[in-house]
């Protein structure tokens, strides 16, 4: 009865609190927010000036008194206060304009929140995420591990007694897990993912061409030219940066092959870890995975040819989930509709 009272004022929401992007889905309504995990603050007053897309535009372009920061690193909170401010902004944004009515919900609105977290985080790191959500205005904050959320979002039958193999390649972490009977049989959380690929590209441009580029440029190059295998139609792009020797702007034309070389070591680390988990998987579950295939989710799943590369290395079929960027937040949203499933998969829960 008491919980029903709250639902009159608040939308229950699922959150994929990512290192690079934060996605928010409303129970029964789908994804409503998809914005960068960036916050711009005034250095002296610590006042929040912008969040999300507006803040990302400021990266590398701010005056001395403004700092644009990413409050999460490698999938965990590196700046608690800024993370809290970002979560509060997104929770309030969800409740400002429900159904496009223009009606603003009262300040009493405090939703239940389900948040996906990396499977390898410590108890302290889990508590930090939960406390940030509660401080940001949630009345309850439940945490579920990202590979489990990704599997639910991808539509895998996680409660069956068969094995499912999920690989979620995000910005800060790569989550690899074998799931059966609603639990993680084996899992590994690598702090090697999209951010490392961006850094690989920055290092490559500096070492090969003596040109310094920023994180945003590196990410754009990865999206446009990144690949894990030789492509039928190799592409080229012009990259602009600062020449280290002269300090002046310089344009360089680079190819898909060069970016493939730049990110190859990070790709190999991910493939090697998948191979290691397969070696540890019980034979009964391994036969299920051979039949069902390895499922790729997360932004890294969009790297061209990555599915083929993993398949060639593991001799397993590999599938890319539908809309892999949103599987975690869709999984978080789905468990809000199935409280029995939430009780099985949640890491911890809290009520303020």
Automatic annotation (TrEMBL):
One of the GO BP terms on file: regulation of cell shape
CDD domains: ASKHA_NBD_MreB-like
Keyword field contains Lipid biosynthesis: no
SUPFAM superfamilies associated with the record: Actin-like ATPase domain
Main localization (coarse): cytoplasm
Similarity field: Belongs to the FtsA/MreB family.
Functional description taken from the UniProt entry: Forms membrane-associated dynamic filaments that are essential for cell shape determination. Acts by regulating cell wall synthesis and cell elongation, and thus cell shape. A feedback loop between cell geometry and MreB localization may maintain elongated cell shape by targeting cell wall growth to regions of negative cell wall curvature.
Record protein name field: Cell shape-determining protein MreB
Organism: Candidatus Daviesbacteria bacterium RIFCSPHIGHO2_02_FULL_43_12
Gene from which the chain derives: mreB
């Amino acid at each position: 009865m008491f919980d029903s009272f709250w639902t009159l004022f608040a939308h229950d929401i699922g959150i994929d609190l990512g290192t690079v992007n934060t996605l928010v889905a409303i129970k029964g309504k789908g994804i409503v927010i998809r914005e960068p995990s960036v916050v711009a603050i005034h250095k002296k007053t610590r006042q929040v000036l912008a969040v999300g897309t507006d803040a990302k535009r400021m990266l590398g372009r701010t005056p001395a008194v403004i700092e644009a920061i990413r409050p999460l690193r490698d999938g965990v909170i590196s700046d608690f206060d800024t993370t809290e401010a970002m979560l509060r902004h997104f929770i309030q944004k969800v409740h400002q304009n429900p159904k496009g009515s223009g009606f603003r919900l009262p300040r009493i609105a405090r939703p239940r929140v389900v948040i996906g977290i990396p499977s390898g985080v410590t108890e302290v790191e889990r508590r930090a995420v939960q406390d940030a959500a509660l401080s940001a205005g949630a009345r309850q904050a439940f945490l579920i591990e990202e590979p489990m959320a990704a599997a639910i979002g991808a539509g895998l039958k996680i409660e069956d007694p068969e094995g499912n193999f999920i690989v979620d390649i995000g910005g800060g972490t790569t989550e690899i897990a074998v799931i059966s009977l609603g639990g993680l049989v084996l899992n590994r959380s690598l702090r090697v993912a999209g951010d490392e690929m961006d850094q690989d590209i920055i290092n490559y441009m500096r070492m090969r061409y003596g040109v310094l580029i920023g994180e945003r440029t590196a990410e754009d190059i990865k999206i446009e030219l990144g690949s894990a295998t030789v492509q039928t139609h190799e592409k080229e792009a012009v990259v602009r940066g600062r020449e280290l020797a002269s300090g002046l702007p310089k344009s360089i034309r680079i190819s898909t092959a060069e970016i493939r070389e730049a990110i190859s070591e990070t790709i190999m680390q991910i493939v090697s870890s998948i191979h290691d988990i397969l070696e540890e998987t019980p034979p009964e579950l391994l036969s299920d995975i051979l039949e069902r295939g390895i499922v790729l989710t997360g932004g890294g799943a969009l790297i061209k040819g990555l599915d083929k590369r993993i398949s060639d290395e593991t001799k397993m079929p590999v599938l890319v989930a539908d809309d892999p960027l949103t599987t975690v937040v869709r999984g978080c949203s789905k468990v809000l509709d199935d409280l029995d499933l939430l009780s099985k998969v949640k890491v911890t829960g809290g009520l303020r």
